[in-house]
Write a structure and sequence with these properties.
single chain, alpha/beta, 13 helices
C-alpha cells in the first residue's frame, strides 16, 4: 500500500491500522535491503531531529542516530541532564521551542502523557522511543523479525512470559491484536495487562481474527508457540526493593529449554534486550550474590541457542525506526 503518514506522530500502535503497520514493515524491509547493499538512501540534506532521552538506552539511541544519519538527518541527542523538559520548562513550552528547530522529535522516558503533549504542541512528528505504557518502535522491529523467520504474521502464536503490565506486554498485545496474531500473556494474574486495555484489544481482535489468552501455567501456555518472548523482571527506574518480590513471583516463568522443547522445534526465542541470562553484568553478579541465581528471565542455554533470534531483532530496531522517520517526514 502507499503510505500516507507524512506529518503524523508515532505514539502507539493503537493509532495505526493493520494496513499502515504492514506498510511500515514493508518500507523497513526495503530500507534494510538498501542498507545491506550499500545503496544511498539519503532523502534529507542536513535537517535535524531531536532525540530526548530521560531514560538512557543503547539500542534505541543507536538506532535513531544511525537511521537519521542514513536518511541525511542530523540527530541532536539530549540526555537526562541535557534538557529542562518538565523541570524548569513545561512540556508544552519545550515542545513549541523544539518544534521550531527540528523536523521531528523522539522521546524516551516516563508517562505516555509526556510524548502525547510533545506531539500536541510541537507541530512536528513525534516518535515514542519508550514510555511506561508503550514501546511501539520495538514492536515494529519484533514483527519484522517474525516475518523474516516465518514469512507472515497472521495466526502466529506469540507467548509473552513474565510481567505483562507495562510497555512491552501492552505493546505486544496491541500489536498482535492489530495484526491478527495469537497472543498469550503467561504469568500470575497480578502481572496480567490492564483490564481496560485488554478489552480494547479484544474489540480489535474481533475485527482482525486475532486471539488473546491469559494463562498462568507456562507448560500449557507455550504449546505450539511460534515465539516465546520475555523481558527483564524489573524495569528502569523501579526501586531495588522490588527485585526480591519479582524473583519470587516470576521465577516460574523463566524461559528454559524445557519450555522451548514443549513449544516445539519451530519455536523461536525473542527478547527486547538487555537480558540477564548470565553473570557478565554488574546487576547479574549482584543478584547472584544476594539471591543465588545465575540467570533471571531466561537461561543462558536458551539465550545462546540456535532458536534465539534476539540479535536479528536488535538490528531491526534501526531499520524499522528508519521507516517510521521516513514515512512521517517525507
Amino acid at each position: 500500500m502507499a503510505l500516507h503518514l507524512k506529518g503524523r506522530s508515532f505514539l502507539k500502535l493503537l493509532d495505526f491500522t493493520p494496513e499502515e503497520i504492514t506498510g511500515l514493515l514493508d518500507l523497513a524491509a526495503e530500507l534494510k535491503e538498501k542498507k545491506h547493499n550499500h545503496v544511498d538512501h539519503r532523502v534529507f540534506h542536513g535537517e535535524s531531529v531531536a532525540l530526548i532521552f530521560e531514560k538512557t538506552s543503547t539500542r534505541t539511541r543507536c538506532s535513531f542516530e544511525v537511521a537519521a544519519a542514513d536518511l541525511g538527518l542530523h540527530p541532536v541527542y539530549l540526555d537526562p541532564s541535557g534538557s529542562q523538559i518538565g523541570k524548569k520548562e513545561s512540556i508544552a513550552d519545550t515542545a513549541r521551542v523544539l518544534g521550531r528547530m527540528f523536523e521531528g522529535i523522539e522521546y524516551r522516558g516516563y508517562g505516555q502523557e509526556i510524548v502525547d503533549d510533545l506531539a500536541k504542541y510541537s507541530g512536528v512528528p513525534v516518535w515514542n522511543g519508550l514510555t511506561n505504557e508503550f514501546h511501539p518502535t520495538q514492536i515494529l522491529a519484533d514483527f519484522l523479525t517474525v516475518r523474516e523467520h516465518f514469512g507472515s504474521l497472521k495466526g502466529r502464536k506469540l507467548v509473552y512470559m513474565g510481567d505483562a503490565r507495562y510497555n512491552m506486554g501492552n505493546s505486544l498485545m496491541v500489536g498482535c491484536a492489530k495484526m491478527g496474531m495469537y497472543f498469550v500473556a503467561c504469568s500470575s494474574e497480578k502481572y496480567f495487562p490492564d483490564k481496560e486495555l485488554v478489552e480494547t484489544c479484544r474489540k480489535i481482535a474481533d475485527e482482525t481474527g486475532a486471539k488473546l489468552e491469559f494463562i498462568t501455567d507456562p507448560k500449557e501456555a507455550v504449546k505450539g508457540a511460534d515465539v516465546i518472548y520475555t523481558d527483564v523482571w524489573v524495569s528502569m527506574g523501579e526501586p531495588a526493593e522490588v527485585w526480591e518480590e519479582r524473583i519470587k513471583d516470576l521465577s516460574p516463568y523463566r524461559v528454559t529449554k524445557e519450555l522451548m522443547d514443549i513449544a516445539g522445534s519451530q519455536c523461536r526465542f525473542m527478547h527486547c534486550l538487555p537480558s540477564f541470562h548470565d553473570l557478565k553484568t554488574v546487576i547479574g553478579r549482584e543478584i547472584y550474590e544476594k539471591f543465588g541465581i545465575d540467570c533471571m528471565e531466561v537461561t543462558d542455554e536458551v539465550f545462546e541457542s540456535p532458536a534465539s533470534i534476539v540479535f536479528d531483532e536488535a538490528e531491526n530496531r534501526m531499520h524499522t525506526i528508519k521507516a517510521v522517520m521516513y514515512a512521517t517526514l517525507v
